[in-house]
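This entry is set out below.
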Amino acid sequence: MIASLASEPIAVGNRVLFEELGIALAGEKEIKDGTEVLVSRGGRYLGSVVVRDQLRPSAAAAAVKSLQEMKIQVVLLTGDTKAVAETVGDQLGILKIEAGLLPEEKTRIVAEQVKKGKMVAMLGDGINDAPALSEASVGIAMGAGTDVARESADVVLIGNDLTKFVETVRVARNCRRIIFQNLYGTLIVDTIGIGLASVGLLNPLLAAFIHVASELTFILNSTRLLPPREKRKPEHADHIVVPA
């Protein structure tokens, strides 16, 4: 950001901006454990503000690990410095990191993966994530994110719990698996029925039995998607009052 106060230009930004403006940093060393925001006034470097990101409690390494166990490659795309990104990546167990990205660079990386035929899910919550969210196969915005991110996404998570996203992917995969099981099962049963009918071994009674039995089997197979019922604990009275 560049503004003017009392006819003096004030600049706030990163080292790239200060290099473009020709503002000397007087040997100031780059901060490695946070996002560095430099400040100048009248072309003179004043100092810096360091912003350190704290991981959300829900952004636990367990969520990332669960996605990786499902053979999903997790990539961290961030506009923060490489040092900050690597620190966060180490805490979460993310092996592939792209740091120092502008919004258009995030969009380009996502678009390249989509063009390669990969199914890309992009999770984001900021204004800078909006273009990449709309470019992904499935854009997912965090519930507490910006309005622009939510409008650009296909799915909005309620809250910021990443474990909910993991559970959603797991349920979706189970649903897809059962759909194909039922589809292939139907094709197999119909093929057997056609074969028996072609040689004269399929009478109406047997045909009805095969049809009903197969339909019940597929329905029971689909019930595996239902969430398990929680067992209710029996309520025990501490005192029993008997009226006189």
User: Anything to note?
Assistant: The longest strand covers residues 44-51. The mean pLDDT is 85. Strands lie at 2-5, 8-13, 35-41, 44-51, 75-77, 96-98, 121-124, 138-142, 155-157. The helical segments are 15-21, 61-69, 82-92, 103-115, 130-135, 147-152, 162-198, 204-222.
